[in-house]
Amino acid sequence: MTKKTKIAFLCSGPPTDRKIWSGTIFKMYESFLTHNIDVEWIQVNRFTNLESKFFLAIENLHKKIFNRGFNRNHFIAKAFLASKKLQKTLKKSDVDLIFAPTTIADIAFLKTDKPIIYLNDATFDQLLNYYGGMSGFGWLSKKTTVFIEKLALQKSDFLIFSSNWAAKHAEDFYQIPKDKIEVIKFGSNTTAPDKIVEKDYSGEITFLFLGVEWERKGGQIALDAIKILRDRNYPVKLQVVGCIPPVEEAEAMNVIPFLNKNNPEEARQIFNFLQNSHFMFMPTRADCTPISFCEAASYGLPVISTDTGGVAAVVEPGETGILLPLNASAEQYADEIEILLQNPEQIRALSQNAREKYEKELNWSVWGEKMNKILLELIKNTP
Asked: Which DSSP string corresponds to 270-314?
């Protein structure tokens, strides 16, 4: 009987939790099981109270000296201890390979003879001063983040990124050999319909804003564009799902706060909003691989967004949606949307193209097949 491949899945929480990384971790875990791979969850980022107090003291000292922010997830002492803890755990394990999604601190100083596959939707260097939570760090903290990431990427046997934007940066900035990197796009984290529903574009048009971060996802720009279109007498509305905007616009916007995908009833509500909307409209300020755009594609929703980060990996301008520059105004978005509203056949073409892109690329079955080949080849070639 052939021995099943067994991998160590590094994650701070159980991979069965659909809330972690918008459900991406769960979908990866599910995909491995589908391909008959045994998965051993190894919890990372676990520290004692004393260790946590020590880390806090380092953070406070840094802030006192530099008077700037501090990356509390990526610094030498924490990465070194995290790697040592993982090393100790792996000695008791019989896994064939280590799968490390986003966990650079845990593998930076790791000593192991097991092959490592690292996965992310960006490098942390790209996120510095791009995402709000990765901005304002002092120069030493930024250099340390880059140093830890460099160690982790060089130690990994293979790197998986979800976009060319991220992969190219790893290759150029960290000098990672091209044959050590592959782009495998993420899939939709919702249950996709068997086929898309033909939409009516003659009545009220619903634009779906599906996200938990109103500001970063460009909520105000989306709302302002909808208001402009309403002033032009178009029957449009913004349906917000996942957050509570800091403004109230009863006529132009409906709001449903956060819905938990772990709850079957709330998950069904998300599916219904995807099913009943006409567009997804999120002019994001910063994004790597927006999973919600993959979900939109699975329901045939054209996406209206921004050409930033890795967005172009999942939205093809003019084919599956519209991408405008980061400095585009609400009025520019309204102008582009107005052109579409005057041409329902073009909307239908975008919708069909989006669904086809989902079926060919943006699904976890394709991700699993590509990942499984890499995984098995890596194990085969490991002494």
From this structure: HHHHHHH-SEEE---SS-S--HHHHHHHHTT--EEEE--TTGGGT
Question: 196: which 2 tokens?
Answer: 């898309």
Instruction: Tell me, rounded to whole angstroms, the distance of Cα 306 from its chain centroid.
Output: 15
Question: Contact 348/278 with Cβ under 8 angstroms?
Answer: no
Task: Please name each of the domains of the chain with its CATH number.
Answer: 6-186+363-380 (3.40.50.2000), 205-360 (3.40.50.2000)
Q: How far apart are CA 295 and CA 280, in angstroms?
A: 10
Distance of CA 254 to the CA centre of its chain: 25
Kindly report the pTM of this predicted structure.
Answer: 0.94
C-alpha torsion angle, residues 89, 94, 97, 103 (rounded to 10): -20
Distance CA 32, CA 368 (A): 7
Q: Is the dihedral of CA 354, 355, 359, 362 positive or negative?
A: positive
Give the whole-angstrom CA distance, residue 350 versus residue 360: 15
Task: Provide the 10 A C-beta neighbour count for residue 225.
Answer: 29
Where would I find the beta strands (DSSP E) of 67-112?
A: 97-101
Which residues are within 8 A (CB) of 296 and not within 5 positions of it... i.e. 6 or more apart?
208, 210, 274, 280, 302, 303, 354
Over residues 322-357, the pLDDT tens digits come to 999 999 999 999 999 999 999 999 999 999 999 999
Contacts of 98 (CB under 8 A, 6+ apart): 7, 8, 10, 90, 107, 112, 114, 115, 116, 117
pLDDT digits (tens, 9 = 90+) for 215-272: 999 999 999 999 999 999 999 999 999 999 999 888 999 999 988 877 889 989 999 9
With residues binned 3-state (H G I as helix, E B as strand, rest as coil), the percentages for the chain, rounded to 5, are 45, 15, 40
